[in-house]
Amino acid sequence: MSFEDYKGVYVFVQQVDNKISGVSFELLGKAKELAKDMDTEVTAVLLGYKVSSLYDELAKWGADKILVVDDPALEPYTTEPYAYCMNYIIKNYKPSVVLYGATAIGRDLAPRVSARVKTGLTADCTKLEVDPETKGLRMTRPAFGGNIMATILCPEHRPQMATVRPGVMQKVKPQAGRKVPVEVADVKLGAEQKNVDVVEVIKKISDKIDIQDAKILVAGGRGMGKEENFKLLKDLADVLGGEVASSRACVDAGWCEKDIQVGQTGKTVRPNLYIACGISGAIQHLAGMEESDVIVAINKDSYAPIFEVADYGIVGDALKIVPELTSKLKEA
Ligand code: FAD
Question: Ligand 1 centre from 207 Cα, in Å?
Answer without folding.
Answer: 27
